[in-house]
Amino acid sequence: MNFDNDACVKHIVYKLEQNITTIFEEQKEEYRTLKKLAKNFGISIEKNVRINKDLRTLIENENVLRKIELIIREGWEEKVFQHTKSYYKSPEHEKIKHTLTGKKVNFEYERIINIEDNVESMYFRSGMAAINAILNCWNLLARGKNLKACILSSYYETVQLIKMVSSDSIKIFRSFQFEDYYDLYLIEPVQADYYLTISNLDEIFKSINQSLNFKVLVFDLSFMGTSIDYRKYIENLSEKNIIIFEIESMLKLHQLGMEFCNCGRLSFKCFGKAQALKDIIVKYLEKYRTLSATNLDYFSYTLLDNRNFHDINHINKVLKNADIFYEWIKNYDIPHIYFPFGISKKSYHKTPMINLDFGDNEKSYIGFVSTAISVSEKLGTKIISHNSFGFRNINLEYFSSEANDNFILRISPGAFRGVQFHIVVFLLHYIYGGDKYESSHEITHY
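The chain above was modelled as a monomer; its predicted structure follows.
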């Protein structure tokens, strides 16, 4: 990936200046959102964004917004730490335990904390812990029968976990065939692979509609952040002998892009004759969570017990911004762009990221990420690279496919479209857009 770095910066500066009003309005909205969050967390914010509509001011605003985000994150963690630090893992008897919102948390041993009001929705230490709990519960329900599982999942840890639990009595299939063949389905509506492969839920639901057999459906909704209305797709659902589990990592889309702590949510519904299994499942999952020490600790419960979390507006912004980013770049001459919602337009195929294949070796991906970071630094801000998604600002990461040596660039646009978001768009435009702007003005540090 060779090009004139100075010319690239000039091009990006020119494009940013063309979009100053749009970026400024986004920054104002992000500032209002952060101020509201700070108030709800009980944290004082003295920093303000400036209202001048010039690029230097926008870059200063971007840095101020990042500082405000960190003040909120660190301030809430400090509040919770101060509140919980005096409690032992086995606290003294009769000492009242509660979160900062006043919710009582009664436990004599931290490993057996249980604060859920709804027995059909449980929290685990991670999404993987929730999946593992389901698979162990499934073995209980199977009662030694030979079972067939259709695994439409590509998340690395899930794939490795499936390999670990596979046995002579559990036959694993990595592709779907229409025949009424499977006892359990573990499905990512969009798979976490190189291509963001779409799982064909229409065919799966059609097969289930034609079946009278007992089924267990497990949906990993970590990319969506919201549930699926299964009654739209499964006919006479209340009469089917079906158990539907939903799991998701709560770290990604449910913590305002600030990653306070690992957490996984597991919820389930039983239908038809399977309703008789509800109490058995609840008791088993609670027992499993206690014995495996995979529940949340007191500190984590207190961190997450706040009305700011699980904010559907934040989730929708993250998903919408991925769609907007795709619309910006979809006609660029990038060899391969993988973004399922750009093809499907079904709500369960939304993702918070876009995968780009440059059709080149690892150096191209290293070069793109390092160029994006260096350009942002040259302008006076800094794009930060994480190994995840759902953050407030844009995130870049690259990785190789497990199946081969191909590499992919994953772009997660985040919750607001500020200067950094547009730097990445315009860097891609400079390399692949075919409409380069040549300018004679000198590059300045903003």
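The chain is about 40% helix and 15% strand.
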